[in-house]
Amino acid sequence: MREVIAPTITLVTLAVLPFFSTDYLTTVLFQALLWAYLGSSWNILGGFTGQFSLGHAAFLGIGAYSSMILLSAYGVTPWIGMIVGGGLAALVGAAIGLISMRLGTVFFALATIALAEMMKLVFLYLRPITGGPLGIVLAGGDPTTMVFSSPSHYYWLTLGLLASIIGFSYWLKRSKFGLNLQAIRDDEDAAKSLGINPLRHKVAASGISAFFTAIGGTIMAQWLLYVRPDVVFKIDHSILMAVTAIIGGPYHPLGPLLGSLLVVPASLIINSLLGGKVIGLNVMVYGFLLIISPVFMREGIYPWIRDKLVRIR
Amino acid sequence: MLEVKGLETGYKKLQVLFGIDLAVKESSIVGILGPNGSGKSTLLKSIFGILKPWKGEVRIKGRNVAGFPPKIIGRMGVAFIPQGRSLFPSMTVRENLEVASYALGRDFGKDELNIIREVFPNLIDKLNETAASLSGGEQRMLEIARGIMFMPRLLLLDEPSAGLAPRITDSIYEKLLMINREYGITLLVVEQNVYKALEVCEEIYLLELGRNKYRGRASDPETKKKVLEAYLS
For B100, phi and psi rounded to 5 degrees? Predict the structure, then answer.
């Protein structure tokens, strides 16, 4: 029962925020929530299973393109398109896992970087389907095609997705499947000696993680109203997903949300203050945070804050 | 309870055991001693099915299980506690117990908790703490708890004293003796701590280079002589 308190308070607070905020602030928060959602998706594989992907932009892009192509070429609403994109991404995620995971975590990380770069080229060259470097642009739409007039609507949609993945993460953490994933993360040999098949579990986790990531890709495309290879298949995206989870607390379902609420607004502020003068400063900040956070807080900020709160109570 | 006849096995092309014989009576405590490389751990692994025997028999309650996978042997009432590092450090004590239960296709519930409460009451207070936060002795107790929670008939232990202070070793063996006495669980222990083994075991098997070298009662002065000879020569 106590486990439900923290996520409920957090989500309810987030749900009422747009009533008290300006459109600009809601937009900033929307982006923080979207990255929290994407970070939570990444975390199913990176945090719970300990398989470090640096190419989740590949799944983000597959999701964004799938729903965009289905909508612009076939008139299929993104509400359905995002599920199709999720399914495709899950297949690709499972396949890349099956190919590279037997070789160890380092090879998996490298293979995922290569996957995202490969995807970028494939989508650049498949001009008849993807529109090549110009991508696909939406003229407009309405809620039936997942286009909204107010940023708060995108905000609530993303919050809903975030709530479901946080719920899923809580369930996963306690479930038989999730316990096996965590056992594999902690000590693969010991897990094997209990009779757990590490490869099968890791491949499944990779597919699930890719599925959720792709749905986030659809949201991003519907928000931007366009999709382009260099915009979705960006290594910055892959890194940001990992950063939110690692800084926030990769072992806990609320970790990525916490990390994202910290990192995303900060990097937007940095960019708007100094972005014109120092290009890529936000990436340097991610790097800096990534280096110092494991040194001071091995399990991210979440356990640290939780302990502080418990002490106050 | 357990009978091993002419067991031969090894790793890939390297043969380690050259025909081991073993007979373990129900509810007894039997120690396997021998210098490094004599094949003690290999023997336990091949009894539990982690290593496939090349030749020979492993009989549990009269049934030959040589070549059976660990899961089946586990269901026949055998539990194996490997030498160190078999816990999941970032998971809680409870999660460590649960994941082991699920792996055996069983649930972790009240009965299992009650057994652990009886044998290791101090672990019950730490169910929600991570395994990494436990002391070395507590970690060993958790490994043993994971082995006994389904009340096996035979417990295979690979060096339960490894890496522990003498005082902690004593308390671990106190628990093992209690498990044997209270529940009648048969213990087959590989030990490098010769004096401890001679003190707690009823019967000692001495191995050397993958063969039986000597077998005798632990209380027999001849056994002690032979064991010390083997280690000092």
Answer: -70, -35
Report if residue A209 sits inside a domain: yes
Angle at B135 between CA B130 and CA B139, to 5 degrees: 65
Pairing of strands B2-11, B154-158: unpaired
- Contacts of residue A197, Cβ cutoff 8 Å, sequence gap at least 6: none
Compute the nearest-CA separation of A177 from chain B (Å). 9
The complex scores an ipTM of 0.81
Structural domain contains residue A259: no
List C-alpha distances in Å: B176 to A83, B102, B125, B127, B216.
Answer: 55, 24, 20, 21, 21
| B86 closest CB neighbour out of A179, A190, A299 | A190
Residue with tokens 């940023």: A151
In which domain, by residue range, is A109 found? 2-243
Suggest the residue from B41, B45, B88 to mutate for an interface test with chain A (most A CBs closer than 10 A): B88
A3 touches chain B (CB under 8 A): no
Position A145: which residue type?
T
Contact A190 B85 (CB under 8 A): yes
| C-alpha to C-alpha distance for B65 and B3, rounded to whole angstroms | 10
Q: What is the pLDDT along chain A (313 residues), one digit of tens a residue?
A: 567 888 899 899 999 999 998 999 999 999 999 999 999 999 999 999 999 999 999 999 999 999 999 999 999 999 999 999 999 999 999 999 999 998 888 899 999 999 999 999 999 999 999 998 999 999 888 999 999 999 999 999 999 999 999 999 999 999 999 999 999 999 998 898 888 899 999 999 999 999 999 999 999 999 999 999 999 999 989 999 999 999 999 999 999 999 999 888 888 887 777 766 766 777 777 778 778 877 777 788 888 888 777 766 5
**What region does A75 belong to: left with phi over 0, alpha with psi -120 to 50, or beta?**
left
Domain tally for chain A? 1
Nearest in space to A219 (alpha carbons), one of A146, A159, A283: A146
Q: Which of A182, A193, A251 sits opposite B86 (nearest CB)?
A: A193
CA-to-CA separations, B231 to A192, B157, B194, in angstroms, rounded: 34, 21, 9
- The count of residues in chain A is 313
Q: Which of A218, A184, A219 is nearest to A204 (CA)?
A: A184
Nearest CB partner across the interface for A193, out of B82, B90, B102 = B82
**Is A214 part of a structural domain of the chain?**
yes
- How far apart, in whole angstroms, are the C-alpha atoms of residue A27 and residue A29? 5
User: Is A261 within a domain?
Assistant: no
Q: Is A180 on the interface with B (CB under 8 A)?
A: yes
Q: Is B127 on the interface with A (CB under 8 A)?
A: no
